[in-house]
Write a structure and sequence with these properties.
mainly alpha, membrane, transmembrane helix, transmembrane
Length: about 210
């Protein structure tokens, strides 16, 4: 029997055992997903095929989130927080391996959004300004890790914009002023886009001289 057939046979046996344990109510569905994720990761370690790694990591993220939520935090929904952080860590790991900028962007933004979701779950008061603050931090980290050495400024620009939005949101949530915040934003963001576009055009003209 060929080596690949031997491996596939072991996988089938393990999957069959896991589903049998599930049907006998010895393990729960969350544990089933966890065991399947480990199987996929072991197969990846043996065969080095990216499909097994992707499937294993996704199933691992889902199972870990579900198990933590089931056994640890009963009054607070942390699924979004843990799931986004796990996906973020996976993305950063993929970035370190393949140096693809998309992985870096997701790896920084997903934990930021996940952290905000946890804060929003815990605190009842308005926390919208925290969302923009975390996005600002994420974009600046993206800028520092990848784009600063390339001389590309858009992550830094977005970071500054997010900081401004965070301060404006905090201001409107802490005062009684008739600020018309979202009406103001509806006029502000097109102007910001125009400004960024002009800056890009200027940089391109300067670069081509």
């Amino acid at each position: 029997m060929e080596k690949r057939d031997y491996t596939f046979g072991i996988v089938l046996v393990l999957v069959g055992i896991v589903f049998l344990l599930l049907n006998l109510n010895i393990i729960s569905f969350n544990w089933l997903i966890l065991i399947l994720s480990v199987i996929f990761l072991l197969v990846y370690a043996y065969k080095r095929q990216l499909g097994y790694l992707s499937a294993g990591l996704v199933l691992l993220a889902i199972s870990v989130v579900s198990l933590i939520d089931q056994y640890t935090f009963t009054n607070v929904n942390i699924k979004g927080f843990v799931f986004l952080w796990i996906l973020g860590i996976i993305s950063l790991n993929m970035y370190s391996k393949y140096e693809t900028r998309g992985y870096l962007i997701f790896g920084c933004l997903l934990p930021a959004i996940g952290t905000y979701s946890l804060i929003d779950e815990i605190f009842i008061k308005d926390t919208a300004w925290v969302f923009f603050l975390f996005l600002s931090i994420a974009f600046y980290i993206i800028y520092l890790l990848e784009y600063r050495r390339l001389g590309t400024e858009w992550p830094k620009t977005l970071s500054i914009i997010m900081i401004a939005l965070s301060l404006l949101t905090l201001l409107t949530s802490k005062t009684y002023m008739k600020f018309g915040f979202w009406r103001f934003i509806s006029y502000l963001w097109p102007l910001l886009l125009i400004g960024i576009g002009i800056k890009i055009i200027y940089n391109m003209i300067k670069y081509n001289k």
